[in-house]
Sequence to fold (131 residues):
Amino acid sequence: MNKNTYVPGKSVLPDSLKELIPAEDLAMLTAQLQALPEEQAELVLLSLQKVMSRQRLSNPVGWLLAVMKKAREGRLYAPRQADDLPEHAGHKPARRPEQQLWKPEQRTSARPVSEENIRNLVRDIRSKLKS
Fold:
C-alpha cells in the first residue's frame, strides 16, 4: 500500500513531509487532519498531493493549516480535473484571485523625464520648503 494515499479512518500525511516539517508540527497537523470528517480529510490530502507534485509548497505547515481551516468551514472543494492537464501556451485557466500572481502594471510616461526636468523639480521643491 502506498503510504502517501488516504486510508479511510486513518488520516496520514505523506512521508515526504517528514523531511520538511519538525516532528511536533507533524504530530499537530496529523491530529488536526484526523479530527476532520473523513471526506474533508481526503480532500486535504488530495490537495496536498497535487501541490506537492508541482513542487510549489514553500510553507507546508502554513499551507496545511489554511487548507484544513477551509475544510472545517466547508469551503474546501476537490481539485479540478482541468488542473491535471498541461497548460497550453496562450491558454490560461481562470483562477481565483488568491491563486493569481500579482504583476505590477507597466507605467508609460507621456514624455521622457530628462535630467534637466528632474533638476527643475528638485529646485522647485527646495524653494517651496524654504518659503
In short: Confidence is low (pLDDT under 50) at residues 1-9, 83-91. The longest helix spans residues 38-53. The two ends are 80 Å apart (CA to CA).
